[in-house]
Specification:
The complex is a heterodimer of chains A (257) and B (510). Chain A contains eight helices and ten strands. Chain A has a six-stranded mixed beta sheet, with helices on both faces. In chain A, strands 2-1-4-5 form a four-stranded antiparallel beta sheet, covered by helices on one side. The longest helix of chain A has 18 residues. Helices cover 56% and strands 10% of the residues of chain B. Chain B is elongated and about 95 Å long. Classes of the chains: A alpha/beta (257), B alpha+beta (510).
Chain lengths: 257, 510
């Protein structure tokens, strides 16, 4: 990931999986208006796990929602690979969301009326994509959910549900995976497993993962950490450790103070 | 159910305040009240006469049968939706589980919304909504109204089919006159006449006997009863007069002016010669001017009743009415009998019967529109609640690639399946209820009740229901509801997944 705002570069290098230019989103109007994302320019490399960190209300979640095409920006542009998300029809945007982007919700958002297996293959059905049996088996094996496939989500633990949610996000082999606090509801052991899986998918599958987190330990699994405050990028940390992330956050807090 | 609660709220609130009963006992009290009402209604059916011809509801009027039936109706309105709610929800769950998750998300969302629907049967009565049960109940009412109307129409056609060309009588007899002598008419028509007429393939012959009843004091006019064999009427038109209510112990009176057909009491036909016999008089548009009863019933009361005449219908090739009458008259003259004009209703009676038909048609039409509107409004309300409840799922499915169009269509698909199930469950019940309720003697107080005859009448009603009209009303309701929910579906499908989630959080659905 590079902060493109520094260079003003708008040409897409071949290795970029995701980028934004002038991305802006404001909620409310008049004096109550809050700019959650304020003219953000970002480049995300393929095959890299990037953590987005920052204080509560800094706009992290809004940022990943905009990058995933789950929300429309007020201004600016987003590209996933060569596909521009802004300015296209709702149907085209839905197609990109289904085939090119994978999203992991903090609350898992599994359909309680479907089995784990049906939840995992749901994106394939929605997007009329063929089921790659080998890839499906690989995912199940990698995430260790082979025994849970016929169970309903409410019969699974939080960690198991999140692994099912990650399998669902990966099943279409998306180029980009965005995750909103994927370990926010999990214990330390389950978090470590989930983060390992996300990192594996970057290294082994060449996917780009962007993850919002509050946890410095979770962020240390990332290749890079993006520090976000007041709707803007405030800095980044390469090859982070829990200590360096904490220091970065402290520095960010100092800037805010 | 909400509407019912609002309408009944003052009464329910007063009852709850006045009677200090624990909430959990209200259901038991309700069940006991229902059973008691039903028991009184059934008891009344067999033990209470239904009024007098000379003054309906005067004299021996009793209010408790009416109150008992009212109690049954209120119980049906109050409790049936609860029962049908659980049945409807269980059916929806089964449908949902076989629904394929194909397409661009509409069926996935629909499968989830249908399977997530829960019956609130575990809640106390006052906290239940029973929306599915209310839809099923609406379907029952709609199909019962339409079925009832079409059965009435079939009965009217049956009555019209019982048309005769002429009456053949012994020369010099007084057939059809209003003042025959009291007692059994013994002036028999010669069997040879009947045999001769029956030999003509262009004629259908219905021999009849006649008895005139009434008090001897002259204060009340006498009345003549025409006694026929139901099987003979079957040859005029299949099923004859049985769909109209003709059976042993029942008299069909065509005249809506009760004064001109005066009996001292509805169940007591006083005969000067043999004492008292009982029968139930039904006002029916039987096209003869005389009261009609079965020969077997008459002979059980008065002994042998000879045929004093014959109702004759011309069934040959098409001829003008005058030519048909001439044909019968010629045949009768050759056989040695006189011919009289066929019995017809008075213009006043006809006008009254026609006005009754017009009213029934109008009532069925208005009620159909009302029920149709209620079903549509309820379905749209159902859809609004479904969308609100499942915003998170809609947002999730959208994030996974479902198109806005698919999300929009999920709303009418859910509503369409729900309403279709409601009609699938409610229509058989409604039509069966109409077929049972329209049996002429089943709910008539004090009328004779024969299981075989009643079963036959229910079967006749079922086979004469206008299924096309029932299907048309159900189809129109379904189409209108699906159209309305489609508009609503597209209105709410424009939101982004994030907007949908944000609204869900605001509404507390997440």
């Amino acid at each position: 990931m590079t902060e493109a705002a520094a260079t003003g570069d708008t040409d897409r290098p071949a290795s970029l999986a995701l980028r934004s230019r002038g991305l802006t989103k404001t909620y409310g109007s008049g004096q109550a208006a809050v700019t959650a994302v304020n003219h953000v320019d970002l480049d995300f490399d393929a095959g890299v796990l990037t953590a987005v960190m920052g204080p509560s209300g800094s706009g992290k979640t809004t940022l990943v929602h905009l990058l995933a095409g789950l929300d429309r920006p007020d201004a600016g542009q987003v590209w996933v690979g060569d596909d521009e998300l802004t300015g296209i029809s709702d149907a085209a945007l839905a197609r990109i969301r289904g085939r090119v982007v994978g999203f992991v919700f903090q609350g898992f958002n599994l359909l309680q009326t479907m089995s784990a297996a049906d939840n995992i293959v749901l994106p394939l059905r929605l997007n009329q994509l063929p089921r790659d049996a080998a890839w499906y088996a690989t995912l199940i094996d990698m995430l260790g959910i082979g025994k849970e496939l016929e169970r309903r989500p409410y019969e699974l633990s939080g960690g198991q549900q999140q692994r099912v949610a990650i399998a669902r996000a990966l099943i279409t082999k998306p180029r980009v995976i965005l995750a909103d606090e994927p370990t926010g509801n999990l214990d330390t052991h389950a978090s470590a497993q989930i983060l390992s899986h996300l990192r594996s998918s970057c290294r082994e599958l060449g996917q780009s993962v962007v993850m919002v987190t509050h946890d410095p330990t979770a962020a240390s699994y990332a290749g890079k950490v993006l520090l976000f405050a007041d709707g803007k990028v405030s800095g980044h940390i390469d090859n982070p450790t829990p200590e360096s992330v904490l220091a970065g956050l402290d520095a960010l807090a100092g800037v805010e103070r | 159910m909400r509407v019912l609660e609002i309408v009944l709220f003052p009464l329910l609130w007063t009852v709850k305040k006045l009677v200090s009963v624990p909430a959990e006992r209200w259901t038991r009290i309700g069940v006991v009240a229902v059973l008691a009402s039903f028991a009184v209604a059934v008891w009344s059916r067999f033990n209470v006469p239904h009024g007098t011809l000379t003054g309906t509801w005067s004299g021996d009027f009793r209010s408790y049968p009416l109150l008992a039936w009212l109690g049954c109706y209120i119980a049906a309105i109050t409790f049936l939706p609860l029962a049908f709610d659980a049945l409807g929800i269980a059916t929806l769950h089964r449908i949902a589980r076989v629904l394929p998750v194909v397409g661009q998300g509409a069926l996935a969302v629909t499968r989830h919304t249908l399977e997530s629907r829960q019956s609130d049967s575990g809640k106390s009565y006052w906290n239940r909504k029973s929306e599915m049960g209310a839809l099923v109940a609406t379907a029952i009412v709609a199909s019962a109204i339409v079925s009832g109307f079409t059965i009435d129409r079939a009965v009217a056609h049956q009555t019209d089919a019982l048309a005769f060309t002429a009456i053949v009588v012994t020369p010099g007899a007084s057939a059809g006159t209003s003042t025959p002598p009291i007692g059994v008419d013994r002036n028999a028509l010669r069997p040879a006449v009947i045999t001769a007429l029956e030999a003509d393939p262009n004629l259908v012959v219905v021999p009849y006997g006649q008895v005139t009843v009434g008090p001897t004091n002259g204060a009340t006019p006498t009345a003549a009863i025409m006694l026929v064999s139901p099987a003979d009427l079957d040859r005029v038109t299949p099923a004859g007069a049985r769909p109209i209510g003709l059976q042993d112990g029942v008299m069909l009176s065509p005249d809506p002016e009760s004064e001109s057909l005066a009996f001292p009491a509805p169940r007591q036909v006083i005969d000067v010669s043999t004492g008292t016999v009982e029968a139930t008089v039904l006002n029916r548009s039987w096209p003869g001017p005389l009261t009609l009863a079965t020969r077997s019933w008459g002979e059980a009361a008065w002994g042998d009743v000879p045929a004093v005449g014959a109702l004759v219908a011309y069934v040959g090739k098409d001829l003008p009415a005058e030519a048909q009458f001439s044909y019968v008259a010629d045949a009768a003259r050759l056989a040695g009998a006189d011919t009289r004009p066929a019995p017809t209703l008075s213009p006043e009676a006809l006008a009254m019967l026609r006005s009754g038909d017009t009213f029934a048609r109008g009532f069925a039409g208005v009620m159909s529109v009302l029920v149709l509107s209620a079903a549509c409004i309820a379905t749209v309300g159902f859809s609004v609640r479904t969308v609100r409840k499942h915003r998170q799922v809609r947002a999730t499915v959208a994030a996974l690639g479902a198109t806005p169009r698919a999300l929009a269509l999920a709303v009418p698909i859910d509503a369409g399946i729900t309403l279709a199930i409601a009609f699938a469950l409610g229509t058989p019940i409604g039509t069966a209820a109409a077929a049972i309720a329209k049996v002429p003697t089943l709910s008539t107080l004090g009328a004779p009740l024969d299981l075989g005859t009643t079963g036959w009448a229910i079967g006749w009603n079922l086979t004469h229901i206008g299924w096309g009209l029932v299907a048309a009303v159900a189809g129109a309701t379904w189409l209108l509801a699906v159209a309305a929910t489609t508009i609503y579906g597209f209105r709410v499908a424009g939101r982004t997944p994030v907007d949908e989630l944000r609204v869900a959080i605001k509404e507390g659905a997440v």
